[in-house]
Amino acid sequence: MRRSFRVILSVIFFALFTISACSYPLAAAPAVNLPETVPATPTWVPDETAPPEPLPTSQSTAAPEVRLCRTSMVRAIPEYNNKNLLASFQTLDPFVVLTIDDGYSNTVFDQVLDLLEENEVSATFFLVGTSFGEKIKKETLIRLIENGSDIAYHSYAHPEVSIIEKMSTEDWLHDYQQWSDALLSVIGQQAYDEGVVAYARAPYGAWTTGFMNFLKEQGLEPVHWNADEHTFEANRTPLRDGSILILHIIPENLDELEQLMESDWKVISVRQALGEVCD
Ligand SMILES: [Zn+2]
């Protein structure tokens, strides 16, 4: 009996020692202050590198196919106005798209290119066919392309609105051919392939049915705008992320261009905004 009692005592003692030894590390662990209540929903912390939330689509259902580049400069969705014209971008990135029209003075044209090059900025130029090699020299057009900017269709001779209203789809096809031939004969095939983009802007923004049908047939993207030089005046709606700005190659617009270059906006071309150019 006495031996059995000693065995039982030994077992109890061993068990107590084991429990005590096992519980030691737990006792030494740092205290954790648990919250009294657990939030019903986890807190979301925005991640700078995360892709943006999908933005609501615009009213358009006729958006053209856009070839997106994996390393496009900005994260943006083309935004169409009530006439189905590309007029701005939805984006979370602080950029403005610069478009520059017409061009009848080579001196002013060169000043515009000086400003773009000084600031390492590209733009999309909507140019007129009768200027090619005449008012605007070949060297200037080649310089524009080498700078990374684009040339797009803006009619052969910038007709008056009263004439535009009478032009048929066939008239525009002929006009576009004239424009294209004039540009090609001045800058050559290689520069043409590199710098001419499939975008178009109606003179005076007169987007007639004949013009729109012609664009559709040719697969050209109609590019409108939602900001102009007046945007820079006091008490006007300022530029917003993804605005498409229109300026003209005239001395009166050089001030606005300088202001834009001095601002914090990232300034890019239509092609860069559409992701059709990789950096
Ligand atoms: Zn114009």
Structure, described:
With 279 residues, the protein is α/β, with parallel strands linked by helices. It has one domain: TIM Barrel, CATH 3.20.20.370. It is 37% helix and 15% strand. The chain is built from eight helices and nine strands. The chain has helices at residues 2-28, 106-118, 138-146, 161-164, 169-195, 209-218, 254-262, 270-273; strands at residues 76-80, 86-91, 95-102, 124-127, 150-153, 196-200, 221-222, 243-248, 266-268. Strands 3, 4, 5, 6, 7, 8 and 9 form a seven-stranded parallel sheet that branches. The longest helix is centred in the first third of the chain and has 27 residues, at 2-28. The structure holds zinc ion. Zinc ion binds next to strand 3.
CATH topology: TIM Barrel
Contiguous uncertain segments of 5+ residues: 13-70
| Radius of gyration over all CA atoms, rounded | 32 Å
The amount of beta strand, in percent, is 15-25%
Strand tally, please?
Answer: 9
Summarize the structure.
This protein has 279 residues and is α/β, with parallel strands linked by helices. Helix content is 37%, strand content 15%. The protein has one domain: TIM Barrel, CATH 3.20.20.370.
Give the secondary structure arrangement, pairings included:
Layout: H1 2-28, E1 76-80, E2 86-91, E3 95-102, H2 106-118, E4 124-127, H3 138-146, E5 150-153, H4 161-164, H5 169-195, E6 196-200, H6 209-218, E7 221-222, E8 243-248, H7 254-262, E9 266-268, H8 270-273
Parallel strand pairs: 3-4, 3-8, 3-9, 4-5, 5-6, 6-7
Antiparallel strand pairs: 1-2
The structure holds zinc ion.
